[in-house]
Amino acid sequence: MSEMIYLDNSATSYPKPDEVYQFMLEFYRHNGVNPGRSGFDAAIEAEEMVVNTRKMLMKMFNGDGDPNRLTFSYNASDSLNMIIQGLAEKGDHVVTTMLEHNSVLRPLYHLTKDGIIETTHVPFDQMGYIHPDDIKKAIKKNTKMVIVNQSSNVIGTIQPVAEIGRICKEAGVLFVVDGSQSAGTTPVDMQAMGIDVFVFTGHKCLMGPTGIGGSYIMKGVPVKGTRFGGTGVRSAVKTHLGEFPYRMECGTLNLLGVAGLYRGAKWVQEQGIENLHKKEMALWDKLRKGLQQIENIITYCATGPENQNPVLSFNVKNFQSDDVGTILDVDYGIACRIGLQCAPKVHEQLGTDKSHGTVRMSIGPFITGEQIDKAIEAVGEIAEMR
Length: 386
Fold this sequence. Notes:
Elements: E1 5-6, H1 18-31, H2 41-61, E2 70-73, H3 76-87, E3 92-97, H4 102-113, E4 117-122, H5 132-138, E5 143-149, H6 161-171, E6 174-178, H7 190-193, E7 197-201, E8 213-217, H8 255-271, H9 273-292, E9 297-299, E10 311-316, H10 321-332, E11 334-335, E12 337-339, H11 344-350, E13 358-362, H12 369-383
Parallel strand pairs: 1-11, 3-4, 3-5, 5-6, 6-7
Antiparallel strand pairs: 2-8, 7-8, 9-10, 10-13, 12-13
Helix pairs in contact: 1-8, 2-8, 3-4, 5-6, 9-12, 10-12
């Protein structure tokens, strides 16, 4: 594992900072009890860490001041399911894009198939961006919400969220942003960007562990709870509590996950989001230029570092993407993602859906220039094989 060149950070960031591993271990050793359920010291300290994490992330995303509206879940897919199913009603129309991950596409598909909603998928341009005017044109009288992936997990393009948010506000529709690939690497300002719901996951750019994510829901968003159970307070009430955070949470929290998320997000802030992004994008540009100089390499929507996250998809002519991925892994010790990357409509529009998708390399904060050089060299050698 120590020799592996890990270029699959869009799937999950690896490794995590040492501070995250250490904090999780020490916190769980001393405070691994049920937060918010008891009055003894360890439980109070556990709940304090949970509250502090809510406050930290609310501030990071610039929510509207109530940390209880920052709620936790398993991951972004889990939160998106709760948000979509908690907002959609019979007869609603939803606008989304061809850039979305299955965590958005599949809940919408099931609701559409069941005749509850109708859905419009707005395409992206040749550079990989959604035009706000196309969102505006897609909005109808019965449009309930617009859902946009702030940064694509396939091509890494960062969408004009603020402009889309302004359009949504003018039209009086809710704006939901999937921040799975952007939280921790792209500045998010919910108030300035007109975002009603921001969904995040902890295990990617926020440098936390797997199994933790959540959302921030602005005041006035009429999302219904879809899960019911224990909350640790007002246990005699027969119905699940409607106030936040209980509306979106039930049962015992993933305390270890919250602890890791707290330290990961803190590490990102200590390093500086802009500093991390600048370093990663310099490496991405090095990778882009290196691959684009190799004969028989096709890159997708990779024109430059502007409005871009460090994610690059490519193919080698006359190779299936899964064969390239296997060779990179077995012969070169390079870990990357192949296939459709859980975002089939991106590949449908790129024309790569019938040819096993793409090879995706995604850069994290611990990748070095030397490793990028080795990746470029490896792809070049593969391209020469046929």
